[in-house]
Structure prediction request, 179 residues.
Amino acid sequence: MIIRSSTRIPRAIVLQLSRPAARRTFLSGSSAPANQNRIFDNIRQPNDLHTLTLLSATNNRPLITLWSASWCSTCQTVKPLVKGLIEDERVGEAEGGLAFAEVELDSTLIGDLGVKYMITSMPTLLAFSRQEAQFDTKLVKPELMKNKEFLREWLLNEARRGGRAGGGGGSLFGGLFGR
Prediction:
């Protein structure tokens, strides 16, 4: 593949390619499991989100996004809960896997991405399946996001969707206000 100097490669992809592969034990002759959960670098501009939704759609793996800001204390409480369930407890791997990325709404390069995806409060958890935002299952209530068992079940339901369409359109009010 030839890359021209004017082509911009999203930071998340560059960092993923430059990291050494994680050491895991596999059966002989096998490759990395397709259902392994993935944690990506933070999204700081619209192209990063587009790249990750495309990558997740290619793998039939829902992308879970946490929309937050550095000054949001509730976001800083929710983030380790979500990451811990996905990365440490591997919630969703048995159902086909999940991908996770945080969207930094206070990034100067993020543009109107929050408006495009109807982010009306922080933190917000929004899943993408086949590059479609799943507005019907959007989580906006911090008390639900802080409930580890509720969060686990929400993640499992998104993983069961398996990157398939469903819930993308939703009703106007369901899409605007979420759960």
Summary: The longest strand covers residues 63-68. The chain has seven helices and five strands.
